[in-house]
Write a structure and sequence with these properties.
By secondary structure, the chain is α/β, with parallel strands linked by helices. The chain is 39% helix and 18% strand. The chain is built from 17 helices and 16 strands. α2 links the parallel β6 and β7. The protein is globular and about 70 Å long.
């Protein structure tokens, strides 16, 4: 049996996990890879010794001579952003204590290679039992309909609303969201203190866009900060401004474009202003400078990325923190998820879903998220404790939890639209054209409106 975990965000998400020049993972960004037959190096960890199928790609069942139950091996295709693999291995060992006949073959690959590896396994008739994925729609026809194996309605309703769009394909429940991510703001406490600027400490007094811009300008002027705002080069992160303005990319029914509305265009105008004024260095969006690496230098006032960076920032050599996103019309972040899914044709479908259900139980999901410093996707796990975390990490997690709670359904609905997989590439390209002064903000949104309309007409 094989198990695969999935993350939503397609091509954009690959950039999301590029840290310090090393591609760790890829909204954004809840994502698209060319399917080429390349060999990928996989690190295989076998939980449980003596499995008769430890070397199989997908999984198998065989008779165990010392037990009346069949020995079953579940293969799990997995990628890591931090320590999630270690936590997963611990959980599989716990599961083995309850089910001695179940063994695990954990196949670890870089996030950048995961889609290609998975497609190759499926095409070769050797799908994993389970996998960690980011875009269920890309593998929809190969995924099990979980409702055939468990109470689909109850299982689906246990998820946060922000995580639900990433669990279904064509009305079928095919994946479970392991965690939920949120875009957000980090700041250098040392630089802000030197400039005498205070950040919002309550969701009741968040900055407006103008106040946020002025605060960064003041920090740059009085603290000697070399960079004002490091902003991820990602359409997923950029789109946060669209939702803060009260706009959207698609209409509510998802059948038409809405990106050239007055509200959405305000987001393009403001982002252009931040770049042209030098608050966001042009080396990021008009070049390839890593924004997360800029923040690590200690000379950058703020970093616009997301909660997945907490694990990477927790040991920075300067004081840092997370603060609330600003607003124009409303507060909003953009939720994303990683999912776990079971695959057709593994030969161990029933056992795979049984483990998936165990993994997504409130107790085990809380254990996984707390130890990996992630936000849970389950309604029952809204107050995780993160034992051993520093006060800075704990406070940052609470800020991101609040961002999700304040977010309307619009971002999740937009990014779950099947057309988004194609549209996010021109979205990024035309933002860059705007920053190059080839188009005005309104010309940019008008052009994207036409491009998106064509993509929608071709999307089933």
């Amino acid at each position: 049996m094989s198990i695969v975990l999935v993350r939503n965000c397609n091509l954009e998400r690959a950039k999301k996990y590029q840290t310090g020049g090393i591609l760790m993972k890829i909204k954004a960004g809840k994502k698209a890879f060319a399917f080429v037959a390349i060999a990928s190096v996989a690190t295989t960890i076998v939980a449980g010794c003596g499995s008769p199928s430890a070397n199989s790609a997908n999984g198998s069942a065989s008779t165990n001579k010392t037990s009346s139950q069949k020995a079953v091996t579940l293969s799990i295709l997995w990628f890591n952003n931090g320590n999630e693999g270690k936590v997963l291995k611990k959980i599989t060992k716990q599961y083995q204590q309850l089910h001695p006949n179940i063994h695990f073959n954990i196949i670890t690959v870089p996030y950048s290679n995961e889609n290609t590896k998975l497609k190759t396994m499926i095409a070769g008739g050797q799908p994993p039992a389970l996998a960690r994925i980011t875009d269920p729609g890309e593998f929809g026809s190969s995924l099990l309909n979980l409702s055939k194996y468990l109470n689909g309605t109850a299982f689906y309703n246990s998820f946060l609303d922000a995580a639900k769009p990433d669990t279904t394909v064509s009305g079928r429940l095919v994946a479970a969201p392991i965690d939920v991510t949120a875009n957000g703001l980090f700041y250098n406490k040392t630089l802000f203190a030197k400039a005498g600027v205070k950040v919002p400490t309550s969701p009741n007094n968040v900055w407006t866009w103008t106040q946020w811009e002025n605060a960064i300008k003041t920090v740059m002027k009085k603290s000697g900060a070399r960079v004002g705002l490091a902003y991820d080069k990602s359409p997923f992160r950029f789109s946060t401004l669209i939702y803060e303005a009260g706009g959207s990319i698609f209409t509510k029914n998802g059948k038409h474009m809405a990106i050239n509305s007055t509200k959405a265009t305000q987001a393009f105008t403001f982002f252009n202003q931040l770049n042209q004024s030098g608050i966001i260095p042009k080396s990021i969006w008009l070049g390839n400078e890593n924004p997360n690496a800029l923040f690590r230098t200690g000379t950058t006032a703020m970093d616009f990325s997301g909660n997945w960076m907490i694990q990477n920032y927790k040991s920075l050599p300067f004081k840092w923190g997370a603060t609330y996103l600003p607003k124009k019309a409303i507060r909003s972040t953009v939720p994303g998820t990683d999912q776990i899914a079971a695959f057709k044709g593994s030969g161990v479908e029933k056992q795979a879903v049984a483990f998936l259900k165990y993994f997504m139980s409130p107790k085990i999901n809380a254990e996984f998220c707390e130890q990996a410093f992630l936000l849970s996707s389950l309604k029952a796990n809204g107050d995780l404790k993160y034992p051993g975390a520093t006060p800075t990490v704990t406070d940052a997690m609470k800020v991101f939890e609040n961002e999700l709670a304040a977010t309307p359904p619009t971002p999740g609905r937009d990014w779950a639209n099947p057309a988004m997989q194609q549209f996010q590439t021109p979205l990024k390209q035309y933002v860059i054209k705007m920053l190059q002064k080839k188009l005005t903000p309104q010309q940019t949104t008008n052009a994207l409106q036409k491009i998106g309309t064509k993509i929608l007409s071709q999307t089933k």
